[in-house]
Automatic annotation (TrEMBL), chains A, B:
Protein name: Threonine dehydrogenase-like Zn-dependent dehydrogenase
Originating species: Salinibacterium amurskyense
SUPFAM superfamilies given in the database record: GroES-like, NAD(P)-binding Rossmann-fold domains
Domain Alcohol dehydrogenase-like N-terminal: 25-133
Domain Alcohol dehydrogenase-like C-terminal span(s) in chain numbering: 179-291
Pfam families: ADH_N (PF08240), ADH_zinc_N (PF00107)
Keyword Repeat set for record: no
Key words, A-Z: Metal-binding, Oxidoreductase, Zinc
């Protein structure tokens, strides 16, 4: 099969490798129908050291089940499925508590032992917990982009809003007009936010943000951006700030925009380790800091209903479709911000 | 009047100064009946640079109103009152949202313009928001210690539990066997915690912690302490960790003891600025970090009922009573851990 590997910063290659096979009784093999490139794929795309072994890429996908292990019971050959961006058993204590990304028997893709989804086929561990069947939808459906968005991007935005306890009466500021930021706008509105302020500079993106429900767009960044958010909130700041970037300046911006007693909810994977959390930053104002990798499995069934009944169309974040052979161009298009989010069709 | 000043690290002096007077129409002058020394007073007691001007000390008190400004309406001369450790109007937008320590018209004591409470008299700004009358209790009541504990220490412990969303089914680990830590034990039980683990090494203190409801005591610190907490929680960690110390090792200990998806709630004033909050510390496990100075005014009315009806006796944290002339000895006794919490009786 063809599969995508990252050999070093900027070095994406599509190679022909052996098809994956069932290794555990709880595995499934899925034929990939749609995959995509994630904003978080751009972090190693920028920083990975060159080496002789490529990392298998991709962790979002809609596909059709080809084969299941002997202990898999919730999906069967032929089912159209959405895969969550981590695998998990959906039964352990942490899954039960809603934090599937820390499943005791789960893990992340893109390792030699569990490949990636930017490939023609994929092995999915813990298939009962990691795949969700979508009955009544086939692989030619117009819903595929929105189903694919449930693998990660929309529900990562949703997680940010959920962890920030977005709800009625709350003002939410979203930092970042990438696909996760726009998804957080959509999810915040879905959770009843009174007002959503989107911080972003790319008009085609912020226009989609407005269609997703953003009430205001702030194009300024840094101190000017903070000043503008405070101006829009009577100087008080925002109840919830979603940080959907992951770089340190976005954290600083969040500190500036957040309200007394408010919450900074991070879903951009932090590209920094230490940061201010003392008296002058978080403590004196009773700011809460929350967030992490989204337990997509916790939210996917409810979101699936919303997609199937047309309440939301999170797949609108995809603005370019490529074939697997063009994977490298897909990464470049997202890196240069030519493209918001690239879908790979098989 | 006599009042307590800190001139530098270790240099506590009681001096005779002019009595305070009404400066604003919203002020009250209160004759102090009981004051005390706070764990947070020990931070400047350790670090303040020597200088010619002393800082007025103390921010906890029960007293009797002597005089009110023309716009004060909720307390009157002769009322026995508890003062919260900050002053606030109790009406601004942040007070309404429950974060009185960030009141738009409020502030902290212990500044030249608003003195301290380790003194015979005190000027209380925003008296309507800052003083709570206790009807039917006089200045000889046996309840005075528990009323004094509502100024700060008990409700700071309560704030930690509240911000950590302590409730039924939750395991809470409290780091620190100081008076705030013990108060957090009491408050966590009050809020329905299933199990409270107290980390502390001073048996007289942890014994009181057990009486306040701690189910387990962990005397080990650092990595050993973390290992013990994890052992007590089937390796899973604690849903909520209250950090009631303020030093960096306590934050590290909290990171080790907290559960996936759990919350670190800080009420020890952080004596550090930067700390790890990236993938390996908070983010990958969806840990929430919360806390700050307690908005005592938000909780005091409910806690006052609990004290008056005997449901709680948070004043048990006081284990030594001194007169104002012995203030310096009081600081030393707390600093050397001879005393858990020192009350000053006038």
């Amino acid at each position: 099969m063809k599969a995508t590997f990252l050999y070093g910063a900027g070095d994406v290659r599509v190679e022909t490798v052996a098809d994956p096979v069932i290794q555990q009784k709880t595995d499934a093999i899925v034929r990939v129908v749609r995959a995509c490139v994630c904003g978080s794929d751009l972090h190693p795309f920028h920083t990975r050291k060159p080496g002789p072994v490529g990392a298998p890429m991709g962790h979002e996908m809609v596909g059709v089940v080809e084969e299941i292990g002997s202990e898999v019971s919730t999906v069967k050959r032929g089912d159209l499925v959405v895969a969550t961006f981590t695998y998990q058993d959906n039964t352990c204590v942490f899954c039960q508590e809603g934090f599937h990304t820390s499943c005791l028997h789960g893990g992340f893709y893109n390792k030699p032992e569990v490949g990636g989804f930017q490939a023609e086929y994929a092995r999915v561990p813990q298939a009962d917990g990691s795949l969700v069947a979508v009955p009544g939808v086939d692989e030619n459906s117009e819903l595929l982009p929105s189903l694919l968005a449930l693998s990660d991007v929309y529900l990562t935005g949703y997680h940010a809003a959920h962890m920030g306890r977005v709800g009625a009466g709350k003002t939410v500021t979203v930092i970042g007009d990438g696909a996760v930021g726009l998804s957080a706008v959509l999810a915040s509105k879905r959770l009843g936010a009174e007002r959503v302020i989107l911080m972003g500079r790319h008009q085609s993106r912020t226009d989609l943000g407005r269609e997703f429900g953003a009430d205001e767009v702030v194009a300024e960044r840094g101190e000017e951006g903070v000043a503008r958010v405070r101006e829009l909130t009577r100087g008080e700041g925002s109840h919830v700030v979603v940080e959907a970037v992951g770089h340190f300046p976005a954290y600083q911006q969040a500190l500036g925009a957040v309200r007394v007693g408010g919450t900074i909810s991070r879903v951009g994977v932090p590209q920094y380790s230490e940061a201010p959390i003392g008296w002058g930053s978080l403590f004196s104002r009773n700011i809460t800091l929350t967030g992490g990798p989204a337990p997509v499995r916790a939210y996917i069934e409810s979101a699936l209903k919303d997609v199937l009944d047309g309440s939301i169309a999170p797949g609108r974040v995809f603005d370019r479709v490529i074939g697997i052979d063009e994977a490298a161009q897909g990464y470049s298009a997202m890196d240069s911000r030519e493209s918001l989010k690239v879908m790979i069709a098989f």
